[in-house]
Write a sequence for this structure.
């Protein structure tokens, strides 16, 4: 007799998620993150995160940061705690942006507050994410508009089809 139990395979839906490698300036992969750049909500979440960056980094305002992202005075417990608090705030903001644990993808190999070119490494990462999201959202919107136009073009004023 045949097995009458149904095997549930699940439903697979393309939600626009992209697997995006994070590379350094030499092309070496330093992490991977997953993003849905066409999620309309990500634009708002990104803007909120960027807008709250001063609040995220507020604990660091009186802390000297060494090249490795540690406080210059490692014996100063307040400085160490301030750095940990800022890291916690940043990780929460990044994870909220992507609706998942993505802070590890960006900052697992390098402290987010390491100075790079006179700026925090995390600032460079956040800007790169913003550029990527903007580009991908624009590309997807253009493709969608082209598709919609193929259906509605015949109804445009003055056109007969």
């Amino acid at each position: 007799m045949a097995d009458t139990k149904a095997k549930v395979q699940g439903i697979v839906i393309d939600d626009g998620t992209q697997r995006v490698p994070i590379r350094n300036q030499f092309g070496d992969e330093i992490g991977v993150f997953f993003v849905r750049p066409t999620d309309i909500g990500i634009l708002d979440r990104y803007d909120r995160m960027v807008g709250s960056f001063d609040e995220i980094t507020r604990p660091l305002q009186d802390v000297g940061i060494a090249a490795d992202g540690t406080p210059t005075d490692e014996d100063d417990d307040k400085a160490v705690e301030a750095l940990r608090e800022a890291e916690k705030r940043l990780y929460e903001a990044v994870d909220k942006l992507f609706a998942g644990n993505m802070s590890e993808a960006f900052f697992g190999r390098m402290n987010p507050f390491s100075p790079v070119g006179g700026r925090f490494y995390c600032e460079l990462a956040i800007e790169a994410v913003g550029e990527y999201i903007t580009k991908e959202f624009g590309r997807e919107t253009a493709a969608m508009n082209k598709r919609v136009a193929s259906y509605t073009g015949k109804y445009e004023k003055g056109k007969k089809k």
In short: The mean pLDDT is 87. The chain has one domain: 19-135. The beta strands are 18-23, 29-35, 115-116, 119-120. The helical segments are 40-51, 53-57, 77-98, 103-107, 121-152.
